[in-house]
Write a structure and sequence with these properties.
The complex is a heterodimer.
Chain A: H1 3-12, H2 44-66, H3 75-101, H4 108-111, H5 118-124, H6 135-138, H7 144-165, H8 171-199, H9 203-216, H10 228-235, H11 242-259, H12 282-297
Chain B: H1 14-25, H2 38-57, H3 59-63, H4 72-97, H5 103-111, H6 129-146, H7 155-183, H8 187-206, H9 218-223, H10 231-249, E1 259-260, E2 267-268, H11 274-284, H12 288-301, H13 303-320
Antiparallel strand pairs in B: 1-2
Helix pairs in contact in B: 2-4, 4-7, 6-7, 6-8, 6-10
The chains are: A mainly alpha, B mainly alpha.
Chain lengths: 303, 321
């Protein structure tokens, strides 16, 4: 029997053998096998809210990066940008599922039917004011230079946070962070390489990526101030204090921007948290309308 | 499109031609460094480029649902699939480059309308069921076309096809699984699936190309071992494979003449609207202009990025030297 006939035969059995299908088609619980008990002395509401902060950052940035698919400069970049978005989507799913597992579902359950898993209830059935992502990830992409500048800043912050979060007293957060650091190190490296090429490329690319860096720089202010929730969890050994990653972030960004012959933007002054407490710009409303539209049209459907 | 002329080698090429013919006759592979007739090279570049373009343009119809996929799991599956298609485009452009073509030049030809891509991608994706039906029918038809190409006489193309086919078969199953899930869902979801099947069935049958008596390049491609089965043979195989899958799914294929011929064991099916096929492939389908416009925008809007990367690489090559 020729090779082609055996392939056809395999296709005829399309109804069985789910285990042989590609990534993502299984129905396993994302947190299967990890001890999901909330550690002693930790308020589940705080823990869930913190998971939403980290999960929403990933979900919103994944959505922004996905906007580049079919619009990227090179086919290699189509693959890379989709890869980064997939990693972030994976992190978002785990974090939202964790928030759901400790009972933090906000108003989403008033709209989502029982058959919809927590991760989707949270992603698709919360309104903008319930999202906890920062301004850094929700801002529009801008051009490719600005997109890479934002990815550099966002992945530098997230890698610094996740590296420390591996020591969290919450075993689920520690496991998610341990998986995430390898991914984030690649994201940061990928973005840094582009910032180098663009900064030290042509006159036009230098001008454009500098404008991108200048646009993204001020958004760091929304990332580096701890909310009350974070402060309580830092005291309990569960969360990372964003103030602790400030120096690492500043040092990495300065190093990359210097080498890219770019000007390091002025470090933003501390401001009270906005995104982390549900205050967002109209760009998040637009982003969520696209993300959530179809799921909300069919609240009783399973996909 | 003109029919290829049969090769008439110059006298000093006779020995090379004989060696090439012997390789084809023995069903061995032609490799990039081997001598090959110009017509073989040109036919392959055209076919491989057209295939690569189809992968890249084929990212768009499903890509239109990436931002709106109705669950995070479906979003991840779709994103991984569209990413695979970019990867397939990359292998195929690389295979074309082993024949002396240049990826940027092929992309320009696509954008300028001088090379074609599969006409199926000029149809719109109206609901999320289209994502499933594209996986089931369009990827299914592509697999029927491509599995024999794993034995194509040109080595790099054949090897690229092996990997492409493995990934396509995942996509087909994922598409079918989405449809199975939707058929178990709400009445609206079931209606969406049937509507999508109604719209994609006939264009899927057109993916195998014109009927054998109207396929000008087929005979030479078969002789060269680039193509292994005729368009009509592959179309029949696809119909026979798909009918039981449709029954299991619980959808009706939109062809009243579809019936099993007990004598041959094959399914008879109705006449295909070849006028529609010709209209769409010549640029007048619902989405032709939009597909090319987006590809053009990706090239033109980011030309400054490509230029910067090239300049940076040159600077650093000098620095190393």
């Amino acid at each position: 029997m020729g090779h082609e006939e055996t392939v056809y035969e395999a296709l005829d059995h399309a109804h069985g053998g789910e285990g042989h299908w590609a990534f993502g088609t299984g129905f396993d619980e994302p947190l299967a096998g990890v001890d999901t008990t909330v550690p002693d002395g930790v308020d589940p509401a705080d823990l869930g809210t913190y998971c939403l902060m980290l999960g929403d950052d990933a979900l919103v940035l994944a959505q922004r990066l996905t906007q580049w698919v079919t619009a990227a400069p090179e086919l290699e970049e189509e693959v890379a940008v989709a890869n980064v978005a997939l990693d972030l989507l994976g992190q978002a799913r785990l974090l939202l599922a964790r928030a759901g597992s400790v009972g933090v579902l906000g108003r989403s359950r008033e709209r989502a039917t029982e058959s919809i898993p927590d991760e989707d209830a949270l992603a698709y059935f919360r309104d903008p004011d319930e999202f906890r992502n920062t301004a850094l990830v929700e801002a529009e992409n801008g051009d490719f230079g600005q997109t890479m500048a934002r990815l550099l800043v966002a992945s530098t912050v997230r890698l610094a946070v996740f590296s420390r979060l591996r020591e969290s007293r919450d075993p689920v957060l520690a496991a998610i962070a341990a998986k995430g650091v390898n991914e984030l190190a690649y994201h940061r490296d990928h973005a840094a390489r582009w910032v180098l090429r663009l900064g030290d490329g042509t006159g036009e690319s230098h001008r454009r990526v500098q404008a991108g860096v200048d646009a993204v720089g001020p958004l760091l202010a929304d990332v580096l101030t701890a909310t009350d929730v974070e402060q309580r969890l830092v005291a309990g050994g569960v969360a990372v204090d964003p103030a602790d990653v400030r120096e690492e972030v500043r040092s990495v960004l300065t190093q990359v921007l210097d080498q890219a012959t770019l000007r390091v933007p002025e470090w933003p002054a501390d401001t009270p948290p906005r995104g982390r407490v549900g205050q967002h710009g109209p760009e998040l409303t637009t982003l969520l309308a696209t993300l959530q539209g179809l799921a909300r049209q069919h609240p009783a459907a399973t996909w | 499109m003109s029919a290829p002329t049969l090769e008439r080698p110059a006298p000093d090429e006779t020995a090379l031609q004989q060696q090439f013919d012997a390789t084809i006759a023995a069903d061995h592979r032609i490799e990039p460094r081997d001598w090959m007739p110009e017509g073989y090279r040109k036919t392959l570049i055209r076919q491989v480029a057209q295939h690569a373009h189809s992968e890249i343009i084929g990212m768009q119809p499903e890509g239109d649902w990436l931002l709106a996929a109705p669950s995070l799991r479906r979003k991840a599956i779709l994103l991984a699939k569209v990413q695979d298609e970019a990867g397939h485009g990359l292998y195929l452009y690389s295979a074309a480059e082993t024949l002396g073509a240049d990826r940027a030049d092929l992309t320009d030809k696509l954008i300028e309308g001088r090379q074609k891509y599969s006409s199926i991608f000029n149809y719109p994706t109206l609901t999320y069921a289209d994502v499933g039906v594209i996986g089931w029918l369009v990827d299914g038809a592509a697999i029927c076309n491509q599995v024999p190409l794993c034995r194509s006489s040109y080595g790099p193309y054949a090897r690229a096809m092996i990997r492409v086919c493995k990934e396509e078969s995942f996509h087909q199953r994922q598409g079918y699984e989405l449809l199975m899930t939707m058929m178990r869902g709400t009445p609206e979801q079931r209606a969406m699936v049937q509507d999508a099947v109604d719209r994609w069935w006939w264009p899927s049958l057109m993916m195998f190309g014109p009927p054998d008596d109207d396929s000008p390049n087929s005979a030479q491609s078969m002789a060269w071992g680039i193509k292994r089965h005729s368009n009509d043979e592959l179309r029949q195989r696809f119909v026979d494979m798909t009918v039981p899958q449709a029954e299991f799914l619980g959808v009706t294929l939109p062809d009243p003449e579809l019936s099993l011929d007990p004598e041959t064991g094959h399914h008879r099916f109705g006449a295909i609207d070849w006028d529609e096929f010709k209209r769409v492939i010549s640029g007048h389908g619902p989405k032709n202009a939009e597909r090319i416009a987006r590809r053009r925008a990706a090239r033109d809007d980011n030309a400054w990025v490509t230029e910067a990367a090239t300049t940076y690489a040159a600077k650093h090559a000098e620095a190393v030297a």
